[in-house]
Amino acid sequence: xxxxxxxxxxxxxxxxxxxxxxxxxxxxxxxxxxxxxxxxxxxxxxxxxxxxxxxxxxxxxxxxxxxxxxxxxxxxxxxxxxxxxxxxxxxxxxxxxxxxxxxxxxxxxxxxxxx
Length: 115
Description:
By secondary structure, the chain is of the alpha+beta class. The chain contains four helices and four strands; from the N terminus they run H-H-E-E-H-H-E-E. Helix 3 (58-79) packs across helix 4 (83-97).
């Protein structure tokens, strides 16, 4: 009986480890969020949920936006620029690398990038 308990415990530990290792494979990343249309780029350099999209990426968007805001603030302070200017410049850089079909919001209007 003790051997059976020991095997059951080992099996449970192995299953938990496999699940823990597999979880990141299912996590949503920025590229996947953009490709599936649940996250889009805004002309202020931040991310947002495009129209009609599910809120699946809200946590990812919040995390990335917080990181971007911190970086933009650092660049703005070092170069005596406003956050709006830095965000706009970063959007231009990001936009040039986005694949066609990615949701973007420019001057308040959402559209999919043509090319």
